[in-house]
């Protein structure tokens, strides 16, 4: 039993992704809005992605820029920042805050305040 568990742990460690990444969890913004900013930077270099997000008009550009800079800081020990590209960028839905809005005749309408988990994975530019 223990041998099987050790082998499984070893297999998982070998298959683990070694690319630098960063995540921001529970961002109080809908993932639909965040994905608009992520579509702008996917496949771009880190410096170009930060420049694009600096002047982007989408509201979600600021939290996405923070995640990209965090991922670049995580990678600086092993890689040069100029060689990094945004390999993957995605936003998953986090927990939804449920609020109620009172309406006529004692009824209530639900208000869903959505949250996002933003993940940015960097990779070295192939030459």
Q: Explain this structure to me?
A:
The protein has 127 residues and is an alpha+beta fold. It has helices at 2-15, 31-41, 46-55, 61-75, and strands spanning 21-27, 84-93, 97-102, 108-113, 116-124. It has four helices and five strands, in the order αβαααββββ. The strands form two sheets. Strands 1-5-2 form a three-stranded antiparallel β-sheet. A hairpin with a 5-residue loop joins strand 3 and strand 4 (108-113). Helix 3 packs antiparallel against helix 4 (61-75). It is flat, with a radius of gyration of 19 Å. The relative contact order is 0.23.
Number of helices: 4
* Mean model confidence by pLDDT: 93
Reported for the largest beta sheet, the result is: 3 strands, antiparallel
Structural class, from helix and strand content?
alpha+beta
Helix and strand string, N-terminal first?
A: HEHHHEEEE
> How many beta-strand runs?
5
Strand content: 25-35%
Helix coverage percent of residues?
25-40%
Give the overall silhouette: flat
Span of the ends, CA to CA: 46 Å
